[in-house]
Design a protein that fits this description.
Blueprint: H1 4-14, H2 21-38, H3 43-65, H4 67-73, H5 86-107, H6 109-127, H7 134-156, H8 161-181, H9 186-192, H10 197-201, H11 203-226, H12 234-253, H13 257-274, H14 285-306
Helix pairs in contact: 2-3, 2-7, 2-8, 2-13, 3-5, 3-6, 3-7, 5-6, 6-7, 7-8, 8-11, 8-13, 11-12, 12-13
Length: 310
């Protein structure tokens, strides 16, 4: 019989806990902008919790549906290593999804419906779109980007116009990230017969699409500056852009798995800076810095101490 700490650690690995900040920063623009326009309510923190639980459920479903490939490529992961049974993983993911649905409808009927859409997207991605090349690279970012809309709908039932800029920037940036992230496993995916965007379109074409989408993301995120919004949020856009360039250039020059990992690490850092940047349009720079930097530092600490492949 396994000890409770070891079992708990196995489940934490299963949900890829070092990445907890991603659904939070993707949801924050919607909750903050919606709260600013319609007033504070208990729904704001619950929206963030719901996004986090749904993200964890998606990670579990990913490992459940791709356990056959992990038996070969990632035998140390919780399911192939036998630390978590597939049936138990499915039960946990289903329980988390049910919880998300209940919380969504408790906040607003529109939020509940959007939870159903997000669950459908997550299931479609994990069950088959992930192995369908560009369709996988489009569906996952769409789900992540919709979290900003979800956050706004939760607190107000409406979507402030600035949220759509956050949606567009998040979708474009995450699309670019998804494409580049597949380079870290490109040889392994080819050997296993997994179709990723670079293998489907060709490495150069995939990198071109990724680069164009990434640059477009920063343009979209910057448009509110032209509309007279608080200029201080541009700091996060600038730092995210620098982190992206520094870590993406090696991959553009030489498409190796090592450079793919570097690009992915840079993209995660940049995402934590870029995704919530627009909340800085309605809150003080000090407050946005406290939120963003605390999430960034915690993520970096967990990534370094867990040594978990993400």
């Amino acid at each position: 019989m396994r000890s409770v700490p070891k079992t708990l650690h196995a489940y934490l690995e299963l949900v890829r806990y070092p990445l907890f900040a991603i659904p939070i920063v993707a949801t924050l623009p919607g909750t903050v902008l919606g709260t600013h326009e319609y007033g504070w309510s208990w729904r704001a923190p619950v929206a963030l919790l719901t996004a986090l639980l749904g993200y964890f459920a998606g990670m579990i479903k990913n490992d459940y549906f791709h356990r056959a490939q992990d038996d070969i490529a990632n035998p140390r992961r919780p399911i192939p290593s036998g630390r978590v049974r597939p049936a138990d993983a499915m039960k946990l993911a289903s329980g988390l999804y049910i919880t998300c649905i209940a919380l969504g409808f408790a906040m607003h009927w529109k939020a509940g419906l959007l939870v159903l859409v997000l669950i459908a997207l997550s299931h479609a991605y994990n069950a088959f779109l992930k192995m369908r090349g560009v369709w996988g690279s489009l569906s996952l970012p769409l789900g992540i980007a919709l979290l900003s809309v979800f956050g706004a709908v939760c607190v107000s039932g409406r979507v402030p116009h600035l949220v759509w800029f956050a949606f567009g920037a998040t979708f474009l940036y995450d699309f670019g990230t998804h494409v580049t992230s597949t380079f870290k496993d490109i040889d392994r995916d080819a050997a296993l017969g997994v179709t990723t965007t670079p293998l489907q379109l060709g490495r150069r074409a995939a990198l071109t699409a990724s680069t164009v989408a990434t640059l477009a993301a920063f343009v979209v995120a910057s448009v509110p500056l032209l509309l007279g919004q608080n200029p201080y949020y541009a700091v996060w856009i600038g730092v995210a852009f620098a982190a992206t360039v520094v870590t993406r250039v090696p991959l553009l020059r030489c498409q190796t798995e090592r450079n793919g990992y570097v690009a992915l690490e840079g993209a995660m850092i940049a995402a934590i800076l870029l995704f919530p940047a627009l909340m800085g349009a309605v809150m003080s720079f000090q407050m946005s810095a406290a939120v963003i930097l605390s999430l960034l530092v915690t993520t970096l600490y967990l990534l370094r101490t867990s040594k978990q492949e993400v």
